[in-house]
Design a protein that fits this description.
The chain is mainly α. The protein contains 17 helices and no strands. Helix 5 packs antiparallel against helix 6, helix 13 packs across helix 15 and helix 14 crosses helix 15.
Length: about 425
């Protein structure tokens, strides 16, 4: 058994993959802005190209969720990074719209593949909350550095795509530390069936879809809010975004140091409510002070909540399937976000859009908190997995296979006939016989 069970992956390869997968969504405002400014695209059309990127990422997550243990993380991670380099590199090197769109979709699928492998590895790690915090620290630092650097490197639509492709290429050496498929991993996948705790996982994935949709709806029009409503230049916007991502670094650092002392329910529920207030503040800003305050506070809280949500998804299934499904649902919500934000802004104005998005966040805060509360109260099973009330665990492995890491531990009771032969039981039976006489 020890010969076929894969060792837990090292931390830095997962952080590198996480960064390579997440940096594209983090750079979406500048990607969409440059597509609008340097290609014959309207703002709505540029937003649709960004949506195509994120849909490609979501498709990768849903496609690979059950294939990672079977195929192994290394080949899928390398395939994802290769597609990211080729796709974003193509989009950066041409002005032909069909090639740009095709490159964006292929690159998005590559980003989603890297994210899926990283999410599965983080879920199987001994401390998923710490691992997700490290990943968010890395991607926030990378995106912040790019926001400070890209405005000084010239114009053109291709520069952000080239930067994303470069990050993917730099993550390639990390794949050498990832494992391949194992016989025990393949048998576990075949025998495990659906992921455990389907109701809690489905609620988590559905809420995370809406949660991410609201975040990206605002993030996708943040450049427009800053430029049109707050009157800021592109350079000033870049500084605000960089400072906001720096605040995210501080927030995630604090969350990583504090750990799960308060559990997950309080950070997820309270943090989501705080984000709702930040969304309303940002969308209604009419100057630098209000816009910067909203963006900085929002980006300080957002990655903190996300790190706890990733840890919650990992706790539902240490094999990583709910983490991948939740990540794919998040990517799907992120993909729909720019379009929803644009439609809401056209219908209600930017401040009205903020009110709608804030209300939606408050609506999903309750179910998210409920899943976190039930996960925290359940008894602990194998590999630290919580057993939720009202949920049915995954089927046990078949004969001849290694036990699944997420299978509940069954305590074998001592047969009654053996208990009757113990000295204490024998003495008790003799005393009872004397009393009857």
């Amino acid at each position: 058994m020890s010969d076929t069970t894969p060792a837990p992956p090292a931390a830095w390869p997962l952080v590198a993959l996480f960064t390579a997968g997440y940096v594209a969504p983090y750079l979406l405002p500048t990607v969409v802005g440059r597509l609008d400014a340097h290609l014959p695209l309207s703002p709505a059309q540029a937003g649709l190209v960004g949506t195509a990127l994120l849909l490609g990422s979501a498709t990768a997550g849903f496609t690979l969720a059950s294939r990672i243990p079977r195929r192994g993380p290394r080949p899928l991670a390398r395939l994802g990074l290769l597609l990211a380099v080729l796709g974003y590199g193509t989009a950066a090197s041409t002005t032909l719209l069909p090639l740009v769109v095709a490159g964006v979709v292929v690159g998005g699928f590559g980003s989603g593949s890297a994210t899926a492998v990283a999410a599965a590895g983080i879920a199987g790690h001994g401390d998923p909350h710490r691992m997700s915090s490290l990943g968010l620290l890395s991607v926030s630092a990378t995106a912040g550095a790019l926001y400070l650097t890209l405005p000084h490197l010239g114009g053109g639509h291709g520069l952000p795509f080239a930067a994303i492709a470069l990050v993917a290429a730099l993550a390639w050496p990390a794949t050498g530390r990832l494992g391949g498929a194992t016989r025990s991993g393949t048998a576990a996948v075949r025998s495990s069936g659906r992921p455990p705790y389907p109701r809690a996982g489905a609620v988590l994935a559905g809420c995370l879809l809406l949660w991410s949709l609201t975040q990206e709806a605002l993030w996708g029009v943040s450049g427009r809010i800053g430029a049109e409503q707050a009157g800021l230049s592109e350079a000033t916007l870049g500084v605000v975004f960089a400072v906001a991502l720096g605040a995210g670094l501080l927030g995630v650092t604090g969350a990583s140091a504090f750990g799960t002392r308060l559990g997950r329910a309080v950070p997820i529920g309270g943090g989501t409510a705080a984000i709702a207030g930040c969304v309303v503040l940002t969308a209604s800003a009419d100057g630098l002070a209000g816009f910067a305050a909203g963006e900085i506070l929002w980006n300080a809280v957002y990655p903190v909540v996300l790190s706890y949500v990733i840890g919650l998804a990992a706790a539902l299934d240490p094999r990583g399937r709910w983490a991948v499904f939740a990540g794919a649902a998040s990517s799907l919500g992120t993909a729909c976000g720019p379009v929803v934000g644009s439609l809401l802004a056209e219908a209600f104005g930017l401040p009205g859009m903020g009110l709608v998005l804030g209300g939606l966040l408050l609506a999903v805060a309750g179910p998210l908190t409920a899943v976190a509360v039930h996960a925290g109260r359940g008894p602990v099973a194998a590999a630290g997995e919580p057993v939720l009330r009202g949920e049915v665990p995954a089927p046990a492995p078949g004969p001849g296979t290694d036990p699944a890491p997420d299978a509940p531990v069954r305590v074998r009771r001592t047969p009654r006939r053996i208990l009757l032969l113990t000295p204490t039981a024998a003495r008790t039976r003799r005393a009872a016989a004397k009393d009857r006489l």
